[in-house]
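Continuing the series of single-chain predictions for the mutant panel. This is the parent chain; the variants come on the following pages.
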Amino acid sequence: MTLPRIAFLGPGAIAAEHARAFRQLGCPLAAVMGPDAEAAAQFAKRHAVARSTDTVADIVDADDVDAVVVASPSGEHAGQALAALRGGKHVLCEIPLGLSLAEVTAAAEAAGDRIAMACHTQRYLPVVSALRARVVAGEFEPISMSITSAIYRRSNVGWTGERRDWADDIIWHHTTHAVDTSLWLLDDGIESVQALAGPADRETGRPLDLALALRTRTGRLATIAMSYNAIRPVSEVSVFGRSETARISNWQPSHAAASEPNDLLGKAAFAQAQAFLSAIAQRPGSWPSFRDVLPTYRVIQQVYDQIRQESSPA
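Parent structure:
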C-alpha cells in the first residue's frame, strides 16, 4: 500500500501529536497551514513537514496532499473539513466536528466515498478500548456510569501552557468527549438529556461548569460533571456493571501505576492514526465516521439548547 500524503490545518499542540503519530507510521508529511505564516513554518521545521502555508486552499486543493488532519480552533473545524472533502481529500477532524448539529450533519453528508473520520480520541485510550471490547463481547454489562472531568480554563491557555487567541467551549469540546465516551461504553442510544450550567465566565461569556444526566433507551444512566475551574486536572470514570465496577483514574485502571498523560495521548493518537490509514486502505476494522458520531452531537445540541434557554432572560 502506498501511504497517503498527510497535511495539517492548524500548527498547534494537538497537530503535533498527529504529526508524530503519522511520521511513526511512515506517512509523508506534505504540508501544514496556519494563519500565522511564521508559526506554520516553525511547525514544519520541527516535524519534518515538506512545506508550510497560511492559506487553506493551498492544502485542500493541492495535488501533493491525499489526506487532511483538521486541527485548527474549534470554530474552524466544520468549514475546513467540508473544504477538504470537497477538494477530494480524506479527512481526520479534531473534536468537535462543528459547533452545531447542523454543521456536523452537513460535513457528514459531504463525505461521499472519502473517509471522514472523527477524532473522538478517548475511544483509542487503551483502558477505554479494552472496556468497550468487553462490553461488545458481553463480558461486561454496564448499568450506569459517572464521569468527572475537570481542567483549568479560566483564561485562554491550552493544555501545553501556551496562551491561545481563541476561547475553548466546555459544551462543544470537552463535554463532547465525555458524552461520546458514555455512549461508547453504555452501548445504547440516549432517550433523555438534562443539563445545568454554572455562571458565565467574565472573560469568555461562557459557562465553566456543567452537570449532565443522561438516560438511555434501556434505562442505563450516565452522570457527567465538567469543570474548567480545576487548579489541578481531575479525570475519573466509574462504570457500574452487573457483576463488577470498572474504575478509570486519569485514563488508567485505578490499580495501575501512574503514566504521563502525554504518553497516553500519544498512544491513543497513534492507534487513531492507524485506524485512519486502515480506513483509507479499506482494511477491516471499525472507525468513527462523521455519520457514526451524529448521536453524540444530537445530545450535545440538546445540552447547548437547554443551557441557552436557561440563561435567556424570561
